[in-house]
């Protein structure tokens, strides 16, 4: 079956885009200082916090990569397994959320500086920027897919439009405006996915109709992957989530510990609903549209469903993509402003100047994100690269701050450098040998270096 463009769907996307812009402008008028812009004035209640956690984590990484691309390329079981790292990560964050709030920092780099010193802050900022620029880039491509489906315009032109929208919304209101739009997006998406799921299977001829039209390997436990390759897809999301600055900022933005705990429980329940629904819809799509780009699998189903249902799903996908792009772009710009420029270049900057710089760097990093996506052939590939740069480069050292009192500056800094350098060598210089994602190599290297260097450079008094 081929894809027939349905311009009518664009009305749903456009309508939701207008709502997001109006909400963004409205909430931007409530910003009076940097804390309002970056941490929403530490005033996020349970419902809004739940929604923003859901929407930020479930962006184009799930809509175009993650569960979607896995279901299309390798089968339903590998796609469902993609949910496990998220659930484990949410559980661990639930345990350390009180400690995150105690630090009261704008960035993860600030937390690392407390333990490892100013050098760690600079290295961490560079790692975060490298990773988050990659994550933002494939949100832009996700919007390009949507506009291609609805209007037939090229994905490249659609990506440019997506880039402009993401940059605009991130720059006008920060987390103060992003969080409420996130919440609306998350709850709309859950409704849309559960309307779509039974509808698409009816159209595809039921479960038997779907399974009869996919390769036999796509019904096995690992698809065409071996166990090590499968693990290479599962680990990056776990270690990104465990150290994700966006999630730390959101937890620090809650009204209090109780709100944060309730929101994380809501986040867990939401992911139990969203992730399997995306997997099964994309799997049905693979039987109907076997020759499309894997990243378009979920969105392609909108063209064969009743217009209203397809339009609601496409609007929800748009919302997830835009809000995730906004969040990671805002977070990366915060690092540049506070951890690099404000720390080393313009130390006496006023709060107003810092706020202006953050908005400027949102635009600059948005342009870099657009350039970066042109170097990766698929959303899934850039997703795995970005997740591993962050997960191997930062997360082991960050978790050690919370769980290992003995860890020291030498161990933490060495681990960060080892993780990101190993990732870049494996992905770029060696070209990903044996089709193994770099996390399989980079993460063990980062952990081993953390432990060995700490033990070699610490004395018994630091235990």
From TrEMBL:
Domain of life: Bacteria
Biological processes annotated in GO: sodium ion transport
Transmembrane domains' residue ranges: 6-27, 39-59, 71-97, 118-140, 160-179, 186-207, 227-244, 265-284, 296-322, 354-373, 385-404, 411-430, 436-457
GO cellular component: plasma membrane
Major subcellular location class: membrane
Location in or out of the cell: Cell membrane
CDD domains: SLC5sbd
Bilayer topology: Multi-pass membrane protein
Keyword field: Cell membrane, Ion transport, Membrane, Sodium, Sodium transport, Symport, Transmembrane, Transmembrane helix, Transport
Pfam entry (one): SSF
InterPro entries the UniProt entry points to: Na/Glc_symporter_sf, Na/solute_symporter, Sodium:Solute_Symporter
Catalytic reaction(s) noted: L-proline(in) + Na(+)(in) = L-proline(out) + Na(+)(out)
Gene Ontology MF: a single term: symporter activity
Keyword Transmembrane helix carried by entry: yes
Gene3D superfamilies in UniProt: Sodium/glucose cotransporter
Matches recorded under PANTHER family: SODIUM/PROLINE SYMPORTER-RELATED, SODIUM_PROLINE SYMPORTER
Similarity comment: family membership: Belongs to the sodium:solute symporter (SSF) (TC 2.A.21) family.
This protein's name: Solute:Na+ symporter, SSS family
